[in-house]
Amino acid sequence: MKRLAAILCALSVAAAANAAPTKRTPPPDVNTYIPEQAVQHLPTLSKQVKEVWPTFYAPNYFGALIEHESCISLTHSKCWNPTSRLKSDREEGAGLGQLTRAFKADGSTRFDALEDAKRLDAKGLNDLRWDTVYQRPDLQMRVVILMTRANWNRLDKLVADNDGKLAMTDAAYNGGIGGVLNERRACGLREGCDPNKWFGHVEKVCLKSTKPLYAGRSACDINRHHVHDVLHTRMPKYKGKI
Questions:
Q1: What CA–CA distance (Å, rounded) separates 3 from 6?
Q2: 32-80, pLDDT tens digit by residue?
Q3: 140: nearest Cα among 32, 73, 4, 44
Q4: What is the overall mean pLDDT for the chain?
């Protein structure tokens, strides 16, 4: 009996060794794959863009921005999920656009994206509060559009080229409009640097911290990657979808 068991065990090991290795499913191509959860929200996003900013030349930008902000991976449960939440003692990021509020050491509010957005559209965002934000994907999207439009308008008379202006607007969404304006000024003081161009010019003049923050990346790294990832990698696939 023991001999039979040993033979069966040996045969089992041999069979396992000869079995074809399990094939791993490759991750979706970020350049072409639109996450499943995006499909249900794109009509709402289109409606919000038409209401808030119907003349914007590149509405597909907002699909790319939301994907970048919410998707750890294209198949992650938080991807395009309005209930996704990133919370720490000093900061909270909510939903599709990772709308942020930050706190001082004493617990008081240092920054609140919802309150700032309400000043741009008090009537349209009347129902949006921190206790309702996770249940209102439509208003999350509205805030993202309003914040983007506000940054765009700050740059509108300074930068003539729409693509360059959009790149700077995206950098401002991630790192603040004040930082972009300061970097434009610094660029203008450097020989050969054109403050009206982002790629190869203003992008090379980063005044943010170079100290590693997350996974070895600094605030500068994160901000510059944000622009490239949203505009060049993710934005083209949303053309005609919004």
A1: 5
A2: 999 999 999 999 999 999 999 999 999 999 999 999 999 999 999 999 9
A3: 44
A4: 90
- In the predicted model, is pLDDT for residue 9 greater than 90? no
Residues 6+ apart with CB under 8 A from 168: 151, 155, 159, 180, 184, 198, 202
Q: What is the pTM of this model?
A: 0.86
**Which amino acid type is present at position 121?**
D
1 has a pLDDT exceeding 80: no
Q: Are 140 and 96 in contact (CB under 8 A)?
A: yes
CATH 1.10.530.10 fits 35-238, yes or no: yes
Q: What is the DSSP string of 171-189?
A: HHHHH-HHHHHHHHHHHHT
pLDDT greater at residue 230 or residue 108: 230
Alpha-carbon distances, residue 117 vs 65, 147, 157, 166, 228 (angstroms): 17, 7, 22, 19, 25
